[in-house]
Specification:
Structural class: alpha/beta
Strand order of the largest sheet: 3-2-1-4-5-7-6
Number of helices: 13
Helix content: 25-40%
Shape: globular
CATH topology of one domain: Rossmann fold
Number of strands: 11
Order of helices and strands: EHEHEHEHEHHEEEEHEHEHHHHH
Strand content: 5-15%
Mean pLDDT: 85
Largest sheet: 7 strands, mixed
């Protein structure tokens, strides 16, 4: 890299555990500020982004001046983040007046105060269609009032190399004359037929990890094999240890274990003969007119090794709530397997408790990397001296490996949430 080149800088609002920031840094940006109200997520963010100023506070208390100070006199190129809009989530009951649905107003306010060249906002896809797109239009209108042109699109993480069929709406906005667009997919289902790379499957993502084989006590395990594909080389590249951390979970309850034994790979609760189910589940299968329910299709679902997983949520340890049964063993995903399916490197440090929430709420880093690379192309048209970091330089904008990223897995997470 040239000694005079400079990486574009960004602030991450609602940063969580840092998946979005990690992906943007892999693309060549540099984080200068991260804020979130979750104390555990902020601790994780700080451990992995020590060069950034970090704040654990209500977004209502964050000011543009605070972010400009963190930038050290430089103009901020990008404001990024995912304000919670859980009231529109397709994975829960939709509640239009959920106060979390209006956190985007603070995102707009901070963009107005900081005046970045671009912004990137990520959210649940239900926001796109709820009330015929009313809230999407509201968001676009609010940004237009402060001088930003906006485009939005639902993207699938699997289209960008993430082993997960996770759909999210992404907003890009700019105050520049740049023509806004979204990156083309790099992966497709079926793959090479049209010259694309095939989707990264659950097998591609997890096959080098050791099985538990009934051992729910061990906290450190050796990899089963050397990396077997490009994805595994990516997630293991910065892990200097021969052991893998977080490869554990809790055993299933007696009831869940009984049901899990009846579920075949790529199938769920509805695939089981009703005569074999406990009485409570027989009632779940039918509605008043006697016909089978059309929901509950992914309850107790055992994922298929040959495809990407379904969306990893905060409930991935609860196989009764969704498609979180391991494809081979009768158990939920481990913390490491869930992090892999989100595309986090094995050496990414997760701090404190509430790991399912930290992992399930994150933006998949490889999706963020694709979005960041595309934004860099637009930024370079305005500032040709901006530098781009290649994958060979890991995620650091100065081409060095930060010591917080190369960790000894053996000392990680002695105690986790129940």
């Amino acid at each position: 890299m040239s000694g005079t080149s400079v990486a574009p800088i960004f602030a991450d609002l609602f940063c969580g555990a840092g998946g979005l920031s990690l992906g943007l840094e892999l693309a060549g940006f540099r984080s200068v500020y991260g804020v979130d109200f979750d104390t555990h997520a902020i601790a994780t963010y700080k451990a992995n982004h020590p060069h950034a100023q970090v704040a654990c506070k209500d977004i209502a208390e964050v000011t543009g001046e605070e972010i400009r100070d963190a930038a050290g006199g430089r103009k901020v190129d990008l404001i990024a983040g995912g304000p919670s809009c859980q009231g529109f989530s397709t994975h829960g009951k939709r509640i239009e007046d959920d106060p979390r649905n209006f956190l985007f107003h603070h995102f707009v306010r901070i963009v107005r105060e900081v005046r970045p060249k671009f912004f990137l906002m990520e959210n649940v896809k239900g926001l796109l269609t709820y009330r015929k797109g009313y809230f999407r239009k509201l968001i676009e209108r609010e940004f237009a009032k402060i001088g930003y042109r906006v485009i939005s699109k639902v993207v699938c993480a699997a289209d960008y190399g993430v082993p997960q069929l996770r759909h999210r709406i992404v907003f890009f906005g700019t105050r520049l004359d740049a023509e806004l667009s979204f990156p083309n997919p790099t992966h497709v289902e079926g793959g090479s037929l049209f010259g694309f790379t095939p989707y990264v499957s659950v097998e591609d993502a997890l096959s080098d990890l050791p099985l538990l084989e009934g051992d729910y006590e061990s906290r450190e395990r050796r990899y089963k094999s050397s990396p077997r594909n490009e994805f595994q080389r990516f997630v293991r590249k910065t892990n200097a240890s021969r052991a893998v951390s977080l490869q554990f979970t809790k055993p299933l309850s007696a009831l869940s274990a009984k049901i899990a034994r009846l579920v075949t790979e790529g199938a769920g609760l509805r695939s089981i003969n009703p005569r074999l189910l406990p009485e409570r589940f027989k009632k779940m299968r039918r509605i008043k007119d006697g016909s089978l329910r059309k929901d509950c299709t992914t309850l107790y679902f055992r994922v298929s090794r040959s495809r990407p997983s379904y969306t990893i949520t905060c409930n991935f340890r609860n196989v009764a709530s969704g498609p979180f049964l391991h494809p081979i063993e009768d158990r939920s995903f481990t913390y490491r397997e869930a992090a892999r399916l989100m595309s986090f490197p094995d050496s990414y440090i997760f701090v404190g408790a509430m790991l399912p929430r930290q992992i399930g709420n994150a933006v998949p880093p490889l999706l963020a990397r694709s979005l960041g690379r595309h934004l860099l192309k637009l930024l370079r048209a305005d500032a040709p001296d901006l530098s781009i970091v290649s994958d060979e330089q890991d995620w650091r904008t100065d081409g060095t490996l930060d010591t917080a990223f190369a960790i000894d897995d053996s000392n990680q997470h002695a105690e986790l949430m129940a």
